[in-house]
Amino acid sequence: MDDFGVVHALPDHAYQAGKYVLPNDEEEQDRMDIQYHAIRLLFENKPFFAPIGEKPERIVDFGTGTGIWAMDVGDAYPNATVIGTDLSPIQPTFVCPNVQFEINDVTDIPWTYKPNSFDLVHTRIMNGFGIRNWTDFYRESYNALKPGGWVESQEFSLEVNTDDASLPPDSAITKWCDLLYEGALTGAGQKLRLTGDELRVAMEEAGFVDITIRNFKLPIGPWAADEKLRETGQYALLAMLEGLFGISVAIFTRFLGWEIGELEVLLALVRAEWRRRKVHTYWPLFVAYGRKPLVAQNTDGENY
């Protein structure tokens, strides 16, 4: 573990250490893979929604984590080069020959990728934790994409919602969520709440057209009447229970001044509430995608 920083005995990222407030230990990697499965069920096995065509040549996934999305897309498009980038080299070594992984920081701009070279630029769950300025991200994506190429962001907002008032406003879950948001915003400048309309505006400012926003509800727990949503909720709940401490520890201790013991008491209450079948919570999750025009302009307004 010498190549990684450490936050309360949890490995941190070696590249840009301290910039990303989530750990990258095995527990966090398991959480990411479980979360991936929940979202895959919610999306009915679609890795993305942008209509990129049947023969893409180059695809890049920023914040690839364990690389599972990039590997699935590489399997689905064997003739495409799929690049997954992240701050940590935690991805598998043996993968399909068309899949490759790079250590990179999406916020290091300008990007070094060749202009007009990608068919799809993709992110998932990067808001705040990885991307703080969406306009900058979409401008870089615009330049990196081929004319007619697509950018897609699959993001959530740190707001635990319920449609039936089954979660009281004084719940431990609500307290945890609000404190996590406050700590990330005031301590690290990370805004963990977002709307699809905000992404639409940022895409428009970068020059994208044919922008679509699709809204989803990711259930937390097996409370839904629909069988597939119940399974989705089981995985989403497991991801939260597995990763709750890792998600919370840096923000609560670094930025809010909490002691570990205080945090563990709160998280025990949060876990207990989420295990109750009568608590019908979900994460708001949305997919935003847009197309670079066939006759495109660079960010200086010049046609190319």
TrEMBL record:
<keyword id="KW-0489">Methyltransferase</keyword>
<protein>
    <submittedName>
        <fullName>S-adenosyl-L-methionine-dependent methyltransferase-like</fullName>
    </submittedName>
</protein>
<dbReference type="GO" id="GO:0032259">
    <property type="term" value="P:methylation"/>
</dbReference>
<dbReference type="InterPro" id="IPR029063">
    <property type="entry name" value="SAM-dependent_MTases_sf"/>
</dbReference>
<dbReference type="GO" id="GO:0008168">
    <property type="term" value="F:methyltransferase activity"/>
</dbReference>
<dbReference type="Pfam" id="PF13489">
    <property type="entry name" value="Methyltransf_23"/>
</dbReference>
<keyword id="KW-0808">Transferase</keyword>
